Amino acid sequence: MVNRPLFTPVLCAALAAASGFYIFSSLPLLLNAAVLFVLLASVCFLRVISSLYSRSRPWRLAVIYSVVTAIGVCLGICAADAGRNDVRFGVPQEKITAISGVLLEDPRIISQGRAMAVLSLTSCLSSKGARVSSSGVITVFFPQDNALRLREFGRGTAVFSEGRLRHLESGWVYSADSMHIVKKAAAVERMRTGVRLNLISRFEGKKWGGLALSLLVGIRDSLDSNLAVLYRDTGCSHILALSGMHLAVIAALIAFFLKKPLGLKMSAAAGAVIICLYCFLVGPMPSLNRSAIMYLIGVIAVIGAFPRSAMPVLALSFLLQIIISPAEGNTISFTLSYAALAGILITGQSLFGLCAGKAPDFILQPFTASCGAFLASAGITCFTFGVIVPMGIITGLFLVPLTTVFMIVSLAWLVLDAVSLSFILDFPLLLLYELQEKIVSAAGVIPVIAAGSGGSHFKTAAVIALSVFASALICVLEYRRRAALLKTKPFD
Description:
Elements (H helix, E strand, L loop, with lengths): L8 H14 L6 H24 L4 H26 L13 E8 L4 E2 L5 E12 L4 E3 L3 E6 L1 H8 L6 E11 L2 E6 L3 E4 L3 H17 L5 H9 L7 H9 L10 H19 L1 H19 L3 H18 L6 H15 L7 H24 L5 H25 L1 E2 L2 H27 L8 H18 L5 E2 L5 H33 L4
Parallel strand pairs: 5-7
Antiparallel strand pairs: 1-3, 1-6, 2-3, 3-4, 3-5, 6-7, 6-8, 9-10
Helix pairs in contact: 1-3, 1-11, 2-3, 5-6, 8-9, 9-10, 10-11, 11-12, 12-13, 12-16, 13-14, 13-16, 14-15
């Protein structure tokens, strides 16, 4: 019998929820009602049949899977509706002269020294001086003279701004001419902002400091914009976005220092607390939240001595994340994160099995994982950015280990900086930084595959079809290899 992944109920529910979130939620209401009616009718029909054949396991399983499918589709549709950003100003948009709201994230310094932040609206001021209640989330650009002052207050601060409202393809945007602090953030948020500002000041003036801040806590204000562009053009921008790779470094350090003195279960519990505090410090990032949820599920499995498998954990993480924060499901970071990891677990592992023994594992494993992630996310990347960068598979093989070492050395630098000995690691960090810079610069000269503006939907469909075909072919070949291996095993 061939060992293959089991299609568990939680995986079935996650796939149904994804269908409800990304497909059925965009359909007309009557069509959605028809879909739900068909699902419920199927559940009732299968339940009646299973009662007639109560001893038949396939019919009982059919009832279970039909129920979780119906629940998953309903959950996905409801989450998609809850995650929509319905902005309500309360007055005609052209008459709005000022807005009030609360910062939902830490302001980011962008070009020309301006600050950009996401604001949850509370009220608007019209040209006639009337103040009305408002709701929804918009992006606000603050002028340069307010940027640094605003960053000192951070997430949770209530502000009042005068300016102009515009509507772009990405949503509502407000260009502020002035900014006034209405109310400071809660004490715990101010403490968090203070920690972030302290980190910025400690890395300030270092050539490699901007990259360290980006990789450790997701602050890109000091990151060299040319370096960020090179990472993007070489298909390695995911390395700069906090995700599972970065969390794995932190989790590995936690396990290294705590597992021996505390034991497996206590170190796992302590690690869960540290990871939660880390996510609070960094702020809301879909890819990081996905990794943290999966880590916490793994901790629960360790403490409760439950069996755990990667795909069901990924599926459960998806369900929890769209329930906790449905708006994240609409972000490109969210979809790329789940697609890439699913590709690693399915296609990447199958490709590793096919190529096992043909190269050292320390080279083969990251290569096959990169191939799996690339195939799973190629369609999304093509549709969103209009380009595909296959060279990112090779470039990532060099950058990922270098980035891992760079993060660990940066954390060591912070520890030594507390006792004024950080200068010891200044030169190694500079060398690591320049080495990464040279790698992305060299990879940047290799041309990418452009989808182009005309016919991009056709090219995206072609990319998706080719990716699915290649992934399916790899999985089928690996299945046949395992089947042949098991047939010949008794004769060895």
